[in-house]
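mind reviewing this fold:
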Amino acid sequence: MANMESLEELLQEELKDMYDAEKQLTKALPKLAKKATTPDLQDAFEEHLRQTEQHMERLEQVFDQLGMPVKGKTCKGMKNLIAEGNDMIADADDDATRDAIMIAAAQKVEHYEIAAYGTLRTWANVLGHREIASMLEDTLEEEKETDQKLTGIAEGFVNQAAAEDEEEEEPRKRTVGARASRRPAAADRNRTGRR
């Protein structure tokens, strides 16, 4: 980040950062929607994509009001959150577990955005940019709603489905392990036969 001489400059830099973050999300969300196996989760990702596009338009209005060119700067935080989520999703073999991971990854992104937009709104207020603060507040509230919706989907059925899939795996592992432990190893059978 360049040296910041004022809160106004910091606000402008962070707005560029969030513009890029939203742009990155417009590429990531369609992929999540395709991978989601739960219709409610697919719908949530598709709805959030539409919201994200509106967030970008809102940021463009903010840039216009501040006399800034519409231009982002690479948001490393979002880039890393998306990469981490993709890694976790790639490791999931089970559909329900993958859906649970996608919700967790999406909520990490939402919390990042909530923190960023909350800060930007506060700075805009402090700097006397009331209309901009109001627009940022609208986006902040939509991010919070998305987070709550994802929590509802996770707690409503996705996490339970992932837990049930794991419970189905456990008895098979225990059964195989129990059979193996009841059978004496070749060395033990030889010792038993010699007694």
